[in-house]
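Hello again,

I reread your note about wanting to compare the complex against the isolated chains. To keep things tidy I'm splitting this into two emails, and this first one only covers the full assembly. Below are the input lines as submitted, including protein chains and any nucleic acid or small-molecule components. They are followed by the predicted structure of everything together. The single-chain runs will come separately.
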Amino acid sequence: MNRSHLSWLVIGVLGFALPPWYGLPTSSSAPWPPSGLLASFGVAPWLLPIGLFLLLPAPFVIVRSRLAGLALIAAGIGGLGYLVAQGLAIGLRGWSQPLLADLFGPLATGQRGMGAGGLIVAVSLLFYLTLGLAARGAMKGDRFTTGAIGLVVAAIVVFVFWPVSTILSQAMVADPGQSAIVALAERLTARDIWSVGCVVSATRCGVFWNSILLAVLTGVLTTLLGLAFALIASRTGFRFKTGLRLLTVLPIITPPFVIGLAVILLFGRNGTVTQFMAEYFGLTATRYIYGLPGILLTQVLAFTPIAFLVLVGVVQGIAPAMEEAAQTLGAGRWQTFRRVTWPLMRPGLANAFLVGFIESLADFGNPLVMGGGYEVLSTKIFYAVVGAQNDPGRAAALGIVLLALCVGAFILQRTWVGKTSYTTVGGKGFSGTSAALPRVVKYAAYGTALPWALFTFLLYGLILFGGFVENWGRNNSITLRHYITAFGLDWGQNGLLWTGRAWNSLFTTIQIAAVSAPITAALGLLTAYLLVRQRFAGQSTFEFMTMLSFAIPGTVIGVSYILAFNTPPVELTGTAAILVICFVFRNMPVAIRAGVASMSQIDKSLDECALTLGATSAQSVRRVILPLLRPAVVASLVYAFVRAITSVSAVIFLVTARYDMATSYIVGRVEIGDFGLAIAYSSALIVLMGIGILFIQLVVGERRIGRRDPVQPAARPAEVTA
Amino acid sequence: MTRSQHRHALASAVAGLALIAGASAASADDLTLYCSVQEEWCQAMANAFTKETGITVAMTRKSSGETYAQIKAEAANPKGDVWWGGTGDPHLQAAEEGLTAEYKPANFAELHPWAQKQATQSGHRTVGIYAGALGFAINTEILAKKKVKEPSCWADLIKPEFKGEIQIANPNSSGTAYTAMATLVQLLGENPAFDYLKQLHVNVSQYTKSGAAPAVAAGRGETAVGIVFLHDGVTQAINGFPVKVVAPCEGTGYEIGSMSIIKGAPNAKSAQRFYDFALSPAAQATGAANKSYQVPSNTKSVLPEQAPRMDKVKLIDYDFKKYGSSAERKKLLSRWDAEVGAQK
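Full-complex prediction:
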């Protein structure tokens, strides 16, 4: 125990003494900016107490005093508190509040954002606190658990709670002569949010009703379709499972706008299908697809795979023992499914619905392209920020409404899943076969999933084709022009020249996605572990906070990140780090959901067993839980990787010339109607993401549960004839 | 805490360091350009400036609304130097809020009066770099098929034969549509203008989000008429779509694409050089070379052949000061919301 105390003591002190305290040097004239220690005796004397806090527990730790725990807690709380206070109080140009200048007298210099030194010291102080707490007996003295909770909470407070509250507080900004409360109330009760005009009169309905209708429909449809695919993939003898899996993954790896464009080119007023219907069936070509039908279609196309990814792990994880027990007791296939399998899938269904619901609320690209006159919260928020109105207060108020919707969904989900146990993966050595699906369910699954798969396949064929034609829909002569513009290569004097316009953003995109995916998965699964396996005060609040950044539309997150991280103490704008962090905290909720769903199936006696045999919690996580969580690991890695490549609304404010992202380039092409290049670039991204996913699956591998092969109809002739 | 846990924490700390170290330091000869025109033009302009001065340009392209929101959010610690391009209103607004810096370019005298006026009324915090008139982008194929005469006046658009055939952006989200609304108010007077907009509403199939989207829709045959800036329609025609642009006979409003230096710019010197450069005829020629056919603001610049002839367009005396102000904007937008936007 003293070893870990000592290590963090050393790391903290070294972090204060050696690396530069501040990041982002102002000019190139100072090649190695001063460390915290150096700055304390030079430009920034106010840093000195931090060093003292770092040293405070040293004597206790070295002499192994029983007071070491208390000293660590004191140093941790004091040091972190002081670190934050000085960071917020002293900005770029001295005191950040005039009041402070009056109190303490003017300062000659200000300070920049924290750099490596600041980061190391902050992390060390955090672990001082958690180690101290563990030493005093918190969480049964488990250092791993207290450390993990501390790390996740701190990260979420800094990177989710702080920026989000910064921007939401804008809803209170009042016009002159108006109180903050009145301003907030006025914005929250605006007619365009709540109006029910479309039911009672000839006016439009408020965005709240539009959004909730769309989100519920999308949530239900994606969950059902996802379930159909999951049942086919894990419970039937369907032959083309690999193909099916591939197809369900395709929409997830599609950059935004592309599905919308393809749908317009098929079902738009001038679309192929519409024109065909008009010509042969005499129907008038109209703009029927714009509005709710179009958004719903594209959202279901886009989010079904996510529901599938959440559900497939759950369906596979249901231990056959219970189903076999039911059948032994004389239940038929239908009864078994209805009374055993279905209830066991509840956490999966609830999580899939929650993800679909929230994805739909936060989705921005599809309502933008397909919306027509149908307005939803996310588009309304976007244009309140960047539109002719330029009204961040309104955007914040709409953001609060959106958040409230998500909280509602979250609470409902919790109530429905309830406190029942869904544990089916226990430590007992069993082997059995999953029950065959009742015929009705099987054919229902086939009947919905297969046509959908076919439709998806068709759509992608068209998209691929669209990259190779001169001008899709008008001039269908084959050309490589778009690919050459995007990915041209040339031999120059110094070798290969990357002349294509897309290379720059492509390389950045892949690097950032590759960095953020593992961090997202690790942090997300760690959080899931804490949520499912540990009990601590404020857990529900904590769980809700993890969902915050997911529920808020990307645009709001983007602007909130600039507001929070453009000035010290944490100055990140213009770096690659801000993109990575943004992706990590935006995509983490899916990793958490996948982890929670899978983990609630794994019997706690498994880790207890490991603990009894002398393993630490960290070891039980690594050796017992992680291998059983492989589907969740794959799901979160894939999701994080892909989302980092395809998300657009959040990054649009964070990209810079050095760190430009592929999607922001594609959006520019779509804006001016250059669909060919947009589609060519998107196709290339799709192929790349496909390779990425295969790579992830190869590295993580499949989960192996001691079980016979799932149902093979051929092997059970008796039942087939019966 | 176990050993592997240490390793893990250390590894993440190191990753964090690497990311922070990757952040670049601004050196003396750099320029960060926020660009709000088409991507090709942005790129060409950045390259031309580097070629001329040797200054490295880091360019980011965003729409004018996005750029304005970003500059506002970054105001406490500005990261950009120059904001080049995009419709004039947000530039004027940024000037009004003191987000941009004063600078009088060396070649100011060479500019068209409209470009100079943009500068003088903002206290030289912004300047006009191009102009584009408002009008209609018409899909000739659809109209021929429906045997409907092409519209040539604002008054034509409210005729019953255009029911469901007109697209215009939502003035709440798009500067283009706001310009159109302000134009009608100046042309007809406020109350008749809203009567007109209510009648137009019956014919409008969709209020798009982005200003240029109706031009794309007209090109694709999703609508017969889009109310857009003429140069956006020209771009569709050049890309091979059956689009014709028409300036309304009663007269029309226009935008002044503008440029501003961001207040507190890290590279103020380079920003001023860019400002002077961007107003030169050589720099303004990059527009037409990259399929952007706005009218350049320097009197010595060559007017691109494909550009809609401003001398053939009947322009109103658009009051940018009044209709660019926050108060007037808020008034007109809330009236539009209540009387037009809320209708089915």
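For quick reference: Chain A touches chain B through 91 residues (CB under 8 Å).

B.
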